[in-house]
Design brief:
- The chain is of the alpha/beta class and 621 residues long.
- The protein is built from 23 helices and 21 strands.
- The strands form four sheets. It has an eight-stranded mixed beta barrel with strand order 13-14-16-17-18-19-20-21, surrounded by four helices.
- Helix 3 runs parallel beside helix 4.
């Protein structure tokens, strides 16, 4: 191996630098001859390396060291400091013990370690120069120091040089790996939360001192958990890698548009949360430009294996130091802004404003109490009857979730269901609803109560969750409710969100004998061809169309068309939100078979529903 091809096991293609500090020119020449001229590889040296490091390395070129010389301690220290500043540090220094009239070897070593603490040092000394105790008193104990007694021979110098430079390289390699583990995300290679918070704290202090303005962009991917649940965590991980690369490309691509600073950073904080620091803005609009570019870049379809996935994001922006005197406040306010952006819809970003605290505090309080709602027995089900317009018979009940919290009172489903879907609580809450509805239905059946089908609303994240079907099987086995009495209601928009995934689960439900209804029909954009091919039993027409009857809102022709289409597809129809006799007359004339609404019954508690069912049955006798 030639000098230009030197390969080191730990730092490939780098010649280790050695510094010799000695006031005797003849010593310089001896080191030059020993280290700067290639020598035949010594078998004993390789054996020693193997024993020291436990590895078998390729034969090194022992002459591939870069050697510099200094005649005095101060000169040597200056050379070492300069080399480190140039990022070409010395690995090893041979330091003479006595170099009059300047610093002696011990003082030289002390100053070398102040600026280069990792530097390996060989103290070259005569027997009477220093005692070990005297050396320890000044330098302390260190594994970076070896004492070499004069006179020394070529083999000693070669062995020490080779072993200590390898030790130095190995130490740097290990420290580099540990640093990466501590400060970088192992999946994406972006800086992690620890690195990010350290940088943010430093920049916050710096910007306060110099009157600069920076920005923190807090980014959360929308509905990323749904991707993990439906496509698997492997696909989710690959998606996060692509997103990380796009964020970096986006920041680099902003250079022609806005001035980015060397302190700027993109980081992964954990899960599907990312953050960007813009350290020194000339104007706040720069942060908006960066946020817009990020959302646009991330929204482009991503191909992972055989899957093409589209990702949307929400970004909250805080300016510092204006929006927070410390890191914790700054992060909290960025999170608040992100939450408000998420409520606006996909790919939105918002700057933090003080009023957001009120809204989000209410939301956080709801989430806190919601996490305990099941354990505290605060949830209950009410049941709204569905009536056959021709016979007046109860043909179904829709189970509706209610939450009564001792502190907050009765919370409408429209307030807490979206929160449950965002934070994943909908999985456990949905299971509770299904189990409670099936348990109650089986109890009515056992008591001889005339039992029609029972409808349970299912969220998309439940339906595509990997354990959904197993959970349904467990509930039916536990409650022994006949599957034919259970109807699961999904919204029309769910058919468009993940059409293939939803279709697979619906077919599995049909195989089990469970009925499926499309809720809020008419408010989405589902394909009629897809409706025809899906295992659907019922269409529930959204109340917004019923409300327009006899109000000149042109809903009547649409209603007639929907009812006729359902009949052609052999599907039941339930008109929701019926509240007046005029609406009933129109629906009856349009041959709508079933209705549901306040005109017939408000949602009822379980005991009230039982009375309603028994009374309805007796009236039909």
């Amino acid at each position: 191996m030639g000098e230009e091809e030197c390969v080191n096991t730990f730092e490939a293609n780098r010649r280790h630098r050695v510094l010799v500090i000695d006031d005797t020119p003849a010593i310089h020449e001896d080191f030059r001859k020993t280290l700067a001229v290639s020598e035949p590889t010594d078998k004993g040296l390789l054996d020693m390396e193997s024993e020291l490091f436990g590895v078998s390395a390729p034969e090194p070129d022992l002459g591939s060291f870069s050697v510099d010389f200094a005649s005095q301690g101060r000169e040597g220290v200056d050379m070492a400091v300069r080399a480190k500043a140039e990022e070409l540090p010395y690995a090893l220094a041979f330091v003479d013990g006595r170099m009059p009239p300047g610093m002696d070897g011990i003082e030289t070593i002390r100053e070398l370690w102040q600026s280069c603490p990792d530097l390996q040092i060989v103290l070259c000394t005569a027997s009477a120069d220093y005692s070990w105790r005297g050396i320890q008193t000044v330098l302390g104990t260190s594994d970076n120091l070896v004492i070499l007694k004069k006179p020394f021979d070529t083999m000693e110098v070669l062995q020490l040089t080779h072993a200590l430079t390898r030790k130095w390289a190995l130490s740097r390699e290990i420290k580099g790996r540990l640093y990466k583990l501590a400060y970088y995300d192992s999946l994406t290679d972006l800086p992690n939360r620890t690195f990010f918070l350290d940088r943010l704290e430093y920049l916050l202090k710096t910007n306060k001192r110099y009157g600069h303005t920076g920005a923190l962009l807090f980014l959360d991917l929308d509905a990323f958990k749904r991707i993990n649940d439906s496509l698997g965590h492997g696909v989710g991980d690959e998606l996060l890698k692509v997103i990380s690369l796009r964020m970096l490309d986006c920041l680099r691509g902003m250079v022609p548009v806005v001035r980015l600073d060397s302190g700027d950073m993109a980081a992964r904080l954990g899960g599907d949360e990312f953050a960007v620091i813009l350290s020194n803005l000339e104007q706040p609009d720069t942060a908006a430009n960066v946020a817009l570019r990020i959302t646009e870049h991330l929204a482009r379809p991503i191909t992972v294996g055989s899957h093409q996935v589209s990702v949307t994001s929400s970004i909250g922006i805080t300016l510092f130091p204006q929006d927070g005197e410390d890191v914790e406040t700054l992060m909290k306010n960025a999170d608040l802004a992100m939450y408000n952006a998420k409520r606006r819809g996909p790919n939105a970003f918002l700057f933090y404003r003080d009023f957001m605290n009120v809204t989000v505090r209410k939301r956080l309080a709801l989430e806190h109490h919601l996490r305990r709602a099941i354990a505290e027995n605060e949830l209950s089900l009410h049941y709204q009857p569905q009536i056959n317009l021709t016979t007046g018979q109860v043909v179904g009940l829709e189970a509706l979730l209610r939450w009564d919290n001792p502190e907050l009172g009765m919370i409408p489903p429209l307030e807490f269901i979206p929160i449950a879907e965002e934070n994943g609580l909908i999985i456990s809450i949905g299971e509770w609803v299904l189990r409670a509805a099936c348990t109650q239905a089986k109890a009515w059946l056992d008591q001889g109560v005339p039992l029609p089908r029972v409808g349970v609303n299912i969220a998309l994240s439940q339906l595509i969750h990997g354990g959904f079907l197993a959970m349904v099987d467990d509930v039916l086995a536990e409650t022994t409710l006949p599957p034919r009495l259970l109807e699961m209601e999904i919204t029309e928009s769910m058919l468009m969100s993940d059409p293939d995934g939803v279709a697979r689960v619906l077919h599995k439900l049909r195989e089990r004998g469970i009925k499926v209804a499309i809720d809020d029909f008419g408010t989405g954009y589902s394909s009629l061809g897809r409706l025809r091919d899906l295992p659907i039993d019922c269409l529930k027409i959204d109340r917004c169309f019923i409300r327009g009857i006899s109000m000149g809102m042109r809903d009547e022709p649409i209603l007639n068309a929907m009812i006729g289409m359902a009949a052609a597809l052999d599907l039941r129809v339930v008109a929701e939100g019926v509240e007046s006799a005029g609406q009933v007359d129109f629906l009856r004339s349009s041959h709508c078979p079933e209705v549901q609404g306040f005109l017939f019954s408000h949602p009822l508690s379980a005991s009230q529903a039982e009375i309603f069912l028994r009374d309805n049955s007796r009236a039909r006798e």
